[in-house]
From TrEMBL:
The chain crosses the membrane at residues 12-30. It comes from Thalassobacillus hwangdonensis. Its main location: other. InterPro entries: BSH_YknX-like, UPF0194_transport. Keywords: Coiled coil, Membrane, Transmembrane, Transmembrane helix. Residues 102-129, 169-196 form a coiled coil. Pfam families: BSH_YknX (PF25984). This is Efflux RND transporter periplasmic adaptor subunit. PANTHER family: EFFLUX SYSTEM COMPONENT YKNX-RELATED. Residues 70-231 form the YknX-like barrel-sandwich hybrid domain. It is found in: Cell envelope.
């Protein structure tokens, strides 16, 4: 009898529980006017933060001289006498390289004078061109502030023109210095020929390191390379599509605990060899910072080309950003409510996403459990037990504890 009564009671309780749950579900389902309070429960959350994002392309390169120059000897003008430099020697403009004996004095003088006149004419032409470029004033861009939505094309064009002007000036100044050095060399040869007769000393028109001396007098007679270095390498077909000149490059060298910064100086548009059965490789050079010490030609470098970047960007971890038709996030607002908010993103590097629109630094994002999140509802979070440890309470100021106890007693 007792067992039947117990089973009967259990059945009643079970039916009551089912009815209770069903009724609550129906109340929530048919609650059109939001008379039943709903909350969002957030157990795990994270904060939007500021971060520097860099998209990198890794490759390798080798240090090499930025320029190679050669010096020739024409045996029709005389008989070679001797070298005045050796391989490995460092020479400057005007340093003696070799001597030769003139076979036709009058002809040699006439040739040198003709060369001097030609160089003087070229120098005058370059100087006139430089003066014209420097005097040219680029028209200032006209900005139209009446239509804010109208795209302004003048400023970029102005900047590009100004950059092109400075680039031309630098190129012509370099060419001018080279012509002046050649003129000085010819004038020195003329002076030597007039003072010493048949024997001519040829001076270097370049500065650099002698890398090769042709003892059999074959051309070129002397090869020199500049002491300034750059980095050379090759891009694959896929890499070539991602890079552009002037992109920032970070590079390191073995056994040197330092990262240097340079820029992509040039990228070839044509591979050295094009073959159906062979992958194409596109040579490039990197202009170095010039801060490297004890680096010699031939040293290898690890390169990271910065193909894209977002500095001081508003960022969030990718696991709190959700995808349906568009990216969105559950934002915990200052008013204590959950907000379903669409966002726009940019770079994504190693689980960190640049948020271009929709979030500000310091906003809190709900992460888990997502099936408990509801738009426009008040959110609740679990108590952080670490903040309620007895040891922390006992470590509090005794005067503060005493005041709180008295306030509690008076409140009763």
């Amino acid at each position: 009898m007792k067992k039947r009564k117990k089973k009967y009671i259990q059945r009643i309780i079970g039916v009551a529980v089912i009815v209770f749950v069903t009724m609550n579900g129906l109340l929530i389902f048919f609650d059109q006017d939001s008379k039943v309070d709903r909350n969002s429960y957030v157990k795990e959350w994270t904060e939007a933060f500021t971060f520097d994002l860099y998209e990198r392309l890794h490759t390798n390169g080798v240090f090499a001289s930025t320029e190679s120059n050669v010096v020739y000897f024409d045996d029709d003008i005389g008989a070679f006498q001797q070298f005045l430099v050796e391989e490995g020697a460092t020479v400057n403009e005007g340093d003696p390289l070799y001597t030769y004996e003139v076979t036709n004095y009058e002809k040699e003088v006439a040739d040198l004078e003709a060369q001097a006149e030609r160089y003087e004419s070229e120098i005058t032409a370059i100087q006139s061109y430089l003066t014209e470029i420097e005097r040219f004033r680029i028209p200032s861009p006209i900005l139209n502030f009446d239509d804010e939505d109208e795209e302004q094309n003048d400023p970029p064009s102005y900047v590009e023109t100004e950059f092109s002007q400075q680039e031309q000036i630098a190129e012509k100044e370099m060419e001018l210095a080279q012509k002046e050095a050649m003129l000085e060399m010819v004038e020195t040869q003329l002076t030597t020929l007039e003072e010493e007769g048949q024997l001519i000393t040829v001076e270097s028109p370049y500065s650099g390191v002698v890398t090769e001396v042709s003892q059999d007098l074959s051309s070129p007679l002397i090869t020199m390379k500049t002491t300034t270095l750059h980095i050379e390498g090759e891009f694959s077909e896929a890499e070539r599509k991602e890079v552009e000149p002037d992109m920032e490059v970070e590079y390191t060298v073995d056994d040197i605990d330092q990262t240097f910064t340079g820029a992509l100086d040039s990228i070839r548009d044509f591979p050295d060899q094009a073959s159906v059965n062979q992958a194409s490789h596109y040579p490039f050079t990197v202009a170095t910072s010039g801060e490297e010490d004890k680096i010699l030609p031939g040293y290898h470098a690890d390169l990271d080309v910065i193909t894209d970047k977002a500095e001081n960007a508003t960022a969030a971890f990718d696991d709190v950003l959700l995808t349906e038709d568009n990216l969105f996030a559950w934002v915990m607002t200052d008013t204590g409510e959950m907000e379903y908010r669409a966002i726009e993103t940019g770079l994504e590097i190693d689980g960190i996403v640049e948020v271009q629109n929709g979030l500000t630094v310091g906003e809190w994002l709900a992460d888990y459990p997502r099936d408990e999140f509801r738009d426009g509802t008040v959110f609740i979070t679990p108590i952080q037990q670490d903040d309620l440890l007895l040891e922390k309470l006992l470590d509090s100021n005794k005067v503060v504890i005493k005041n709180h106890l008295l306030l509690g007693l008076l409140g009763r």
